[in-house]
Amino acid sequence: MQADVSIAADVYRLIESIGVSLGGVSILVNNAGMSNPRSIETITEDDWDKIIAVNLKSVFLVTQAVLPYMRLQKWGRIINMTSVAIQLGGIVCPHYAASKAGIWGLTHSYASQLASEGITVNAIAPANRNRNDC
């Protein structure tokens, strides 16, 4: 199944199809992401918007779409992929670092709000060996 996870209508169509095919969602890994290496001076508003939509907005949209299934089961696991760029900064990708920092904030918020419902939310922040990449 394919969807553009930065577009709400695509996400809801995808999750509805999964719900029909598989009976619901118990585990979600928010792993969609992209980078677009740019220096501060060359980042355009379109560059910014696309990175934020794919990397951050998608986490919000997909999580929101699967929550009804998890709440019905009173159980769920959500794993959000972030990056060490939240701590080190994006040397050539400030917009990437900002998007991944946003995921970190969402993770903390979701974790505190959903734990009492049996839904855990965690983040993984892998590192890239070449710090100049995003």
Describe the fold and architecture.
The protein has 134 residues and is mostly helical. It has one domain (8-124): Rossmann fold (3-Layer(aba) Sandwich), CATH 3.40.50.720. It has helices spanning 8-22, 45-73, 85-88, 94-114; strands at 27-30, 76-81, 119-124. α1 (8-22) packs parallel to α2 (45-73). The longest helix has 29 residues, at 45-73. The two termini are 27 Å apart.
What's the N-to-C terminus distance?
A: 27 Å
CATH superfamily assignment?
Answer: NAD(P)-binding Rossmann-like Domain
Mean pLDDT: 91
Largest sheet: 3 strands, parallel
Key attributes of the depicted protein:
single chain; 134 residues; mainly alpha; Rossmann fold; three-stranded parallel β-sheet
Topology summary:
Elements: H1 8-22, E1 27-30, H2 45-73, E2 76-81, H3 85-88, H4 94-114, E3 119-124
Parallel strand pairs: 1-2, 2-3
In short:
The protein contains 4 helices and 3 strands, in the order αβαβααβ.
